[in-house]
Amino acid sequence: MTGNVSAMTTTVADLTADLERVYPPHWAESWDAVGLVCGRGDREVTKVSLAVDCVPATVAEAAEIGAQLLLVHHPLLLRGVSTVAPDTYKGEIVHTLIESGIALYVAHTNADVANPGVSDALAHRLGLTDLRPLVPVEDTDRGIGRVGRLPAPETLEQFTARAAAALPPTAWGVRAAGDPRRLVQTVAVSGGAGDSYLGHATAAGADVYLTADLRHHPVSEHLEAAGPALVDAAHWATEWPWLEAEAARIRAAFDVATVVSDRNTDPWTLHRSST
Q1: Domains plus CATH for the chain?
Q2: Annotation: binding site
Q3: pLDDT tens digits, residue range 148-189?
Q4: Can you say which residues are annotated as belonging to the binding site for a divalent metal cation?
């Protein structure tokens, strides 16, 4: 956590304007729900908390450290609700945020396609260079996912170990599909659920594609079609690195302290290998 004393005052509106400049809401998918969820624009902000998910634990954490703004990746109100009464799950969260004086801001798919964005942070964690979009947005340097190169070829087994060491630990861990001895150097990544981009990883000439939430049948068919090897990590773990990168960007732009939550909000809590 860093921050310097200054006469300058940073407000919720200041941070909102900055976030919407870097991650314009119109970049988000049509089904997404991004932007300011609650919080008055004229409220002063001296500390920002960053988390992947807006859940009771991360809201309580933000209140405990005295944050005035909680920046999250996953939307709290992605699906419509007819009430935010405090006896409902999401309503209780909204009430706690407001009563604690914490603004909530969401940057989701608009942060996924940004450059730099969610997948850039993931790629850097893995040591990839020469990055380019996996699924480019026409006539821009933006796009979903990234394709890059490792410093030298390594086996799929070694790359899987690299990913496990680079990403925050989860019960889900990291698993791979393909020949463990296969050499890989060109790597495609996409933070979050990415099985809809399997074909793009093949077209990009990737040797291996790392993402989250891979399913049995798409993986099986992809491998049968001689596609790249696959590495499947926890959804939360593939998106968490962006928080550190975004916290550093905010500190460089504003005289505020930032705290990245390392609270594991991945829903899976146990894992045992079969014998």
Answers
A1: 12-108 (3.40.1390.30), 113-238 (3.40.1390.30)
A2: 73-74, 112, 235, 239
A3: 999 999 999 999 999 999 999 999 999 999 999 999 999 999
A4: 73-74, 112, 235, 239
